[in-house]
Specification:
alpha/beta; 2 domains; single chain; Immunoglobulin-like; TIM Barrel; seven-stranded antiparallel beta sheet; 27% helix; elongated
């Protein structure tokens, strides 16, 4: 059945091209890698992520690197290869320390979070920091642990339910980091969910004891932009209670866990549209940075995990059997629609233009640079999205000849073998200061409308 476009509901978008609303950049919205495999980042993924020019990537330093196999013995083979592949993407690195060496934790029990020899632990952490922050200048931010409030079900092998206990572990570890490299940024705890009371208590302990804390962090999986924004603003209030310059990071960001773990779900326009809606909203908050989880799909090797994990079958189920497919790429480097959300956000960098839409489920931002004007429009509803035709009214354009191009991310794979989006519309147009264009916004889609000067 053919679409009856003249009967499709309309939404009205206004862009004022002769007014400045400051600068527009999505540099704070970045990507993370976690936390299942020691294998280096695939070269095809390195190349494409490098094109985004992100300033930072977040990684896990998990026990599967086996960097400390025996007392006094360091084996950097696996970790060197992994971090060098990350460094090749040209970004700084935030590394969350999630190691659990068998010699310091002889019992596989996530609730045993303190090492049996604190001084030896400090030596291990110090050597790690020297290697990757002092000698190699790869890691700039060191996070202490990950999702300790839910333990191994969060993918890492430490479980610390009390913020007071976490504070003790944080002090032990951050002291070792700073002793090795005083310039490091240190923080945590990368909580699962926002867990406000836990975070507030931890920050209070740091304030009361004068403990160095450069950033706080948490993880959220939700298709509601409001959830992500509320957490960012509340985290800012909590951190300000100690110091105004503490950075705020959402170290894992994604939408929802799908009900159907099929390959086709990973290529759904809804995934991309929900991510874009969250990132547009989050960019209006005081957050220092966010890291989409994750850069590419991974798989679990049980031969590794059984050496330090008590619920290895859980990891196999979530990474190997019914994988979430959160990656912007699959393991073989095949691109997914979510990657192009970041490509379009990168293209939006410039002078911000005032822009507004006619309904709450149509989100828009606009910018101007030396090449022309662009508007990014997201059609996404948390409940039920529907097709729309956008009537886009530009005012204040510089009169002249332009090429109008429309790029779209939806359920169709609209890209070529070089990971470049293919325009759904491209034509010459002569624009007066007031110019109107009609553009289809399919349900759960992201659309870039560009007017490039000729």
């Amino acid at each position: 059945m053919h679409q009856k476009y003249d009967q499709t509901p309309r939404t009205y978008v206004k862009v004022r091209a002769d007014e400045s609303a400051g600068s527009l950049s999505f540099d704070r919205q970045m990507i993370g890698i976690g936390g299942a495999s020691h294998l280096p980042v695939p070269e095809t993924v390195q190349e494409q992520v490098r094109s985004l020019s992100h300033r930072m990537v977040r990684v896990f330093i998990q026990e599967y690197f086996f960097a400390y196999p025996e007392h006094g013995v360091f084996d950097w083979t696996r970790l060197d290869a992994f971090l060098e592949s990350v460094a090749n993407m040209g970004a700084d690195v935030m590394a969350s320390i999630c190691v659990r060496p068998r010699v310091l934790y002889p019992t596989i029990d996530p609730k045993i979070f303190m090492p049996n020899d604190p001084e030896e632990w400090k030596k291990l952490i110090g050597e790690m920091v020297k290697r990757y922050s002092v000698e190699r200048r790869i890691v700039t931010h060191w996070g202490v642990a990950n999702e300790i409030n839910i333990g191994e079900s969060g993918g890492t092998p430490l479980e610390i339910h009390s913020p007071d206990d976490y504070y003790d572990f944080y002090v032990l570890t951050s002291d070792a980091i700073l002793a090795a490299w005083p310039e490091a940024k240190v923080g945590g705890p990368s909580l699962a969910g926002f867990a406000r009371d836990y975070l507030a208590r931890f920050v209070d302990l740091c304030r009361e004891n004068g403990t160095r804390l450069d950033f706080v962090s948490y993880n959220i999986y939700s298709g509601s932009p409001a959830d992500h924004c509320a957490a960012a603003r509340e985290a800012r209030k909590i951190a300000d209670g100690y110091r105004k310059d503490i950075e705020i990071y959402q170290t894992e960001l994604n939408t929802w866990f799908p009900d159907a773990y099929v390959e086709e779900a990973a290529y759904s326009g809804r995934y991309a549209a929900s991510l874009a809606a969250v990132l547009l909203a989050l960019n209006e908050t005081p957050i220092t940075g966010s890291f989409q989880f994750g850069m590419y799909d991974q798989f679990v090797n049980p031969d590794d995990f059984e050496q330090f994990y008590s619920i290895t079958p859980f990891m196999l189920r979530h990474w190997n059997e019914i994988p979430h497919r959160f990656g912007l790429f699959d393991w073989d480097g095949r691109v997914r629609p979510q990657f192009f959300v970041y490509k379009l956000l990168t293209a939006m960098k410039g002078e911000r233009l005032p822009a507004e839409s006619g309904d709450v489920d149509t989100r828009v931002c606009a910018s101007m640079n030396e090449d022309g004007y662009q508007a990014l429009i997201v059609n996404y509803s948390e409940q039920h999205s529907g097709d729309k035709v956008a009537v886009i009214d530009f005012t204040g354009l510089k009169r002249g000849l332009y090429r109008l191009e429309v790029y779209r991310i939806d359920d169709q794979k609209r890209w070529n073998a070089d990971c470049a989006l293919i325009p759904v519309e491209s034509r010459l147009t002569y624009a007066l200061p007031a110019h109107t264009a009609h553009v289809l916004l399919p349900a759960d889609s992201v659309t870039l409308v560009r007017l490039s000067r000729i």
